[in-house]
Amino acid sequence: RTNWKCFLSLVSGSRSSKTFKPKKNIPEGSHQYELLKHAEATLGSGNLRQAVMLPEGEDLNEWIAVNTVDFFNQINMLYGTITEFCTEASCLVMSAGPRYEYHWADGTNIKKPIKCSAPKYIDYLMTWVQDQLDDETLFPSKIGVPFPKNFMSVAKTILKRLFRVYAHIYHQHFDSVMRLQEEAHLNTSFKHFIFFVQEFNLIDRRELAPLQELIEKLGSKDR
Question: What are the DSSP E strand ranges found in the chain?
C-alpha cells in the first residue's frame, strides 16, 4: 500500500478544478481487489439489491471497507465535475435544501462545529475521509491484519458524511448535473449507496431525511 501513499502525496500538490481528491486505489492482486471486482461484476447484472449483499463466506468488515473506498471514489468524481458551480459565492453555507445546514467538526482538529461554505466543508470532509482510508490501523490492506474494534463506528461516520455530499449535489446543483447530462450516473451511484447502507443499517434514518422522498422513489421502483 505504500505505492498509494506516494501517489497521494504526488497528486495532492496539483489539484485542478476537475479533480477533487486523488482516486483511492485498492492494490491489484489483493483480496480486497478481488472483492471490488466481484462487486463490479454483480453491479453489471443490474440487480442493485443483490449486488450489495455480503458475498458468501466473506468478512463483513472487509466488504464494508471495500465498498466505502469505492463510494469515496464515486462521490469524489461526481463532485469533481461540478466544483466550478459550487463556490464560496454560490454556496455560502453547506446545505441540503432550506431545512438542512451542516456545520463541520472532526473531533480532533476542529472540536466545536464551525459554519463554513459548501466547498470548504466538502474539502474538510473529503480530506478527513481520505485520512481515515489511509490509516492502516483502521483500514488494513494486508490479508490477516484484523480490523479494529471501532471499525464499524468509523465506517458509519464516513458514510454518514459522504451522504451529505450527495444531498448537497441533489439540492443545490442538480440543474448543473442535468446540463452536464450526468443525472443517470448520479442516480445510479446514489441508488447503489442507499441500497448498501440500508442492507447493513449503516446510516440513521434521521440523517437521510434531506433525500427521503428520492430514497422512497428509488426503493419503490425496485420492488
Answer: 94-95, 101-102
Owning domain of residue 133: 60-220
Q: Do 28 and 54 touch, CB atoms closer than 8 A?
A: no
168 is in an annotated binding site: yes
Assigned domain for 115 exists: yes
Give the CATH number of the domain where residue 75 resides: 1.20.140.30
How far is the C-alpha of 74 from the C-alpha of 72, rounded, in Å? 6
Structural domain contains residue 47: no
Residue tagged 485542478 (cell numbers): 16
Total number of domains constituting the chain:
1
- Was 91 annotated as part of a binding site? yes
pLDDT in tens, the chain (223 residues): 323 333 333 333 333 333 456 667 777 777 887 888 877 777 766 688 888 999 999 999 999 999 999 999 999 999 999 999 999 999 999 999 999 999 999 888 889 999 999 999 999 999 999 999 999 999 998 877 899 999 999 999 999 999 999 999 999 999 999 999 999 999 999 999 999 999 999 999 999 999 999 999 988 766 5
